[in-house]
Amino acid sequence: MGALLPLPVVVPLLGAALTLLLATQPRIQRAVSVLCLTGTFTVAVVLLVQAYRYGPVVMAIGGWPAPVGIVLVADQLAALMVVVSSAVTLCVLLYSIGQGRSETGETTPVVIFHPTYLVLTAGVTTAFLAGDLFNLFVGFEILLVASFVLITLGGTETRIRTGSTYVVVSILSSMIFLTAVGLVYGATGTLNLAQLAQRLDALPDRVRLTLQLMLLLAFAIKAAVFPLSAWLPDSYPTAPAPVTAVFAGLLTKVGVYAIIRTETLLFPGGQVDGLLMVVAGLTMLVGILGAVAQSDLKRLFSFTLVSHIGYMIFGVALSTAAGLSGAIFYVVHHITIQTTLFLVAGLVEERAGSTDLRRIGGLARVAPLLGVLFFVPAMNLAGVPPFSGFLGKLGLLQAGVAAGGALPAALVAAGTLTSLLTLYVASRVWNIAFWRAPRLATAEPVVRLPRLMVGATIALVAFGLTLTVLAGPLFDVTADAATDLLSRTPYVRAVLPDGVP
Amino acid sequence: MTAAGARPTLILVLAVAVLVGCGVILLLERSLTRILLGVILMGNGVNMLILLGGRSGGAPVVDTGPVDGMSDPLPQAMVLTAIVITFGLTAFLLAVAYRSWYLTGDDEVPDDLEDRQIIRRAGRNEVSAVDLGGEGPDGDPEQVDPEPARRRLRRGEEA
Question: Where are the transmembrane segments (chain A) (predicted)?
């Protein structure tokens, strides 16, 4: 089974090369991209089943055994992330193809879009499957460089303005990450995660804490945790709709994934749990208050994105199996829902000519299907029962109550308040954009929305609903993954079967 | 790093400190060209830091000398990768700076538009006028439910 493991990384990269060669034949180019991502998704599902049944799948690249060579590891957490991310990227790709057909070629140069998008996917899967710290860094760099190209696509004035903020902040976080990698190597003499898990325990406490905080700082910038989140709402909204959607769904979650991985495997014991809880609470509240004040749909969703990162950090900070399980479930839920909402924002822009709430209204009457497509994920995000957002939040809040203590209790209160404020934000958007008298920002005659765009959005909404229906089995998987993460031995034993040299 | 011995030399440590320090200061500037220079300096500083993490010594090639005297090849391999990545990032940032200069006439990173609005409002001590989505009685021309009270009054006038 290990032979399948490199495929989610290699297939998109080869696809990127192929689509670059096929730049003159858009039809074949699209077919290749769709095939690559479908293949990745299929392989990811197989990997998840394997990891759930028989434990982590490990592959030593080039046949070099673990501490010397580079390993790819798909334990349940990594496999689950790859499944969800490839499903979401596939839907967004179909959406962008639909949009590309309808557009008159004014904004998106499709020729560059497909190769870059595939490289981005490869970067995301590399980061999820990496078995050593440097490979994780390389994964981050691949996805960042691809995201730089996507966020400045077309090179218009606004995109360059917002893109430069994004580029500089990302480069800074990469530098911090690279420094941390260098320091970790200097202190332990290895970068293999499984081997680090043993060697870091032997370090003096203060050195260990320094390394932990360095890594945490780098990942927190990428995950947009509160004091380090200001770059996100400034830079995301101006990119094309599919790009913003896939960024919102995946890029911050790669940061969250890296935080989960390092906090459980490398630095167990929860030395920084107090700090994490404080920033988690602040992320939730500051983020959602920002969303309350916004009047543009895309900016508003960017703020809810930042806000709900707080829930995941809260789950990680609890350091209990229930908390981690809730955090992993919430990551899966949030990737899907946030991407869907940005896709809907793109549809609104296509239909009404703007995403500015001051200029649009009455969409529920003009385009009833659009109303449904917005309403379901928005209520899901706000945590209205019985959707997966409710179940995820319930899981986290229960874990918080079970942990006891003043700080978790405060976080439970903050989480509830954030959920209510999200409901307020969602209903405000509903009131303004979908109710009241129809008002469109465009005078152009009504064109039918491209079927592929609507179809891809419907598919993602349905995927979100499936998460609700299948929440029971999914919670089984996440609980199992959380137990494995906390005990650490399954991961270490899978990578180093002969014990630590 | 040719001198034998496992300890990093102080000179290299100082060089890392100077490079990263200058890089950070340049990163705090507004102009993209200076930020770019900052990124280059900082990247080189960090790369040198990684190099410090490994043991120094002779060339790590089999059969050229005793294994104990060889330098650690892994940091060198990592630095090679990191240099390539920094090079790519630098090239992209340069392109962004050029494009920014081409479009706006300078390469300064401007304030975010929304942030500027908020600062202006704060300066005038105003609250943000958020549209709450309400509408007046005549806001919706397609409203099918007319107001009953006025109609009855009209009938009364006719009668």
Answer: 6-24, 31-52, 77-98, 110-130, 136-154, 166-187, 207-232, 239-260, 272-293, 300-321, 327-348, 360-379, 399-426, 452-475
Alpha helices in A319-450 (DSSP H): 321-352, 363-366, 368-382, 388-403, 406-429
End-to-end CA distance of chain B: 108
Write out the two tokens for A316: 């990680």
The DSSP code for A156 is -
∠ CA(A396), CA(A73), CA(A393), 5° rounding?
A: 10
Q: How far apart are CA A165 and CA A236, in angstroms?
A: 10
Question: What count of CB pairs under 8 Å joins A to B?
Answer: 108
The CATH number that applies at residue B29 is 1.10.287
**A439: Cβ contacts below 8 Å, ≥ 6 apart:** A359, A360, A361, A362
Contacts of A392 (CB under 8 A, 6+ apart): A311, A326, A329, A330, A333, A334, A383
Alpha-carbon distance of A397 to A395, in angstroms, equals: 6
- Quote the ipTM score: 0.84
User: Rounded distance, CA B159 to CA B155, Å?
Assistant: 6
Report yes or no: B124 and A426 within 8 Å, Cβ to Cβ: no
A501 located within any domain? no
pLDDT tens digit sequence for A312-344: 999 999 989 999 999 999 999 999 999 999 999
Distance from CA of A461 to the nearest CA of B (A): 26
In a domain, A500, yes or no: no
Minimal-distance CA residue of chain B relative to A162: B112
Helix (H, G, I), strand (E, B) or coil at A182: helix
Closest by CA position to A380, among listed A327, A349, A336: A336
Is the Cβ pair B88, A160 closer than 8 Å?
no
The structure's pTM equals 0.90
Sign of the CA dihedral with A254 first, then A258, A264, and A270 last: negative
Domain count, chain A: 1
**Total domains, chain B:** 1
**Per the CB < 8 Å rule, is A165 touching B112?**
yes
pLDDT in tens, A462-488: 999 999 999 899 999 999 999 988 888
Whether A197 maps to a domain, the answer reads: yes
- Show the domain range for B89: 10-119
Residue recorded with tokens 């790093």: B1
Which residues constitute the domain of residue A464? Answer: 2-495
Residue contact A174–B89, C-beta within 8 A:
yes
How far apart are the C-alpha atoms of B5 and B70, rounded to whole Å? Answer: 10
Altogether, the residues listed in chain B come to a count of 159
A163 to chain B: closest CA residue: B96
- Return the SS3 of A360: coil
How big is the CA angle at A222 (ends A5 and A285), to the nearest 5 degrees? 125
Residue A78 near residue A86 (C-beta atoms within 8 A): no
